[in-house]
Specification:
This protein is 42% helix and 19% strand. It contains 10 helices and 8 strands.
């Protein structure tokens, strides 16, 4: 690339070169790949670092990877089809293992939406279907995601008072924020009859390397069914599923042979 290219072209060239080497790229490697002078690459990296678009591959390292803002944009800007395709086998396994409905929720703008679901093979009816907007103040899947978001986003989402969905619903935003602190401590969220009496749900956040939490893995069902057996194996299965989903999704949508990101239909 010629050094007289526009600043935007140079920034995109750097981002594309960094994306091509997920383990990290040094300044000299980026200069060689882009054809830009080392001084130009240095200046561009400094600006991209300040904007949160790139980050050091590890603390103190002089190699660079895509930053949090870019990685989150890759997930936020893509459709849900590729996630459903990659996650469905996992959801099916977990649903059979714990004998309950399982689902995945995703942060989309200021809302948390269910995007995939699995029921046990013997066909217990589920209570969450893809496309539902999850109540941010009550649902486990929403709380598992919101607990890890910046304060400004949480404030936008938790603008109450909220509708009381059941006698156990928390309607005060301050009380919900206190619960989010507990989610961060435990790594799990719970909805204990907060949406409907007799129904309970649990969810684990999916930590994407470099991008934070944009998804959660949850299960829901009748509180009577959950009360008949030990809870910890169910929660452990959710944690394991969230970790596996993190490994599956952290690189973003699959890449076609031509180098283009493809959707589930492509």
């Amino acid at each position: 690339m010629h050094d007289k290219a526009s600043p935007l072209d140079r920034y995109f060239s750097l981002l594309e070169s960094i994306a091509a080497a997920p383990a990290g790229s040094s300044l000299t490697e980026l200069a060689a790949r882009t054809g830009l002078p080392v001084t130009t690459v240095h200046r561009g990296l400094r600006n991209l670092l300040e904007a949160g678009l790139v980050a050091p591959s590890r603390e103190g390292a002089k190699e660079y990877v895509l930053g949090r803002r870019v990685l989150r944009l890759a997930h936020a800007g893509s459709d849900h089809g590729w996630v459903r395709i990659q996650a469905q086998p996992l959801l099916d396994r977990v649903a059979d293992k714990i004998d309950e409905t399982c689902f995945i929720a995703k942060l989309v703008g200021n809302e948390v939406i269910s995007i995939a679901r699995a029921v046990p093979s013997h066909g217990i009816i589920g209570y969450v279907v893809p496309g539902h907007v999850m109540p941010p103040h009550a649902s486990a899947s929403a709380k598992a995601i919101l607990a890890y978001q910046p304060d400004a986003l949480v404030d936008r989402v938790l603008q109450g008072p909220f509708k009381r969905l059941s006698p156990r619903t928390r309607t005060d935003p301050a009380a919900v924020k206190q619960e989010l602190e507990e989610v961060r401590r435990s790594g799990l969220a719970c909805c204990n009859e907060e949406i409907e009496i007799g129904l309970v749900a649990y969810a684990a956040p999916v930590h994407l390397p470099g991008a934070g939490v944009l998804y959660s893995v949850g299960t829901s069902g009748l509180i009577d069914r959950f009360g008949r057996r030990p809870l910890e194996p169910i929660l452990a299965a959710l944690r394991d599923a969230a970790a596996e989903l993190s490994r599956s999704l952290h690189e973003g949508p699959p890449v076609a042979a031509d180098g283009q990101r493809r959707s589930a239909a492509g």
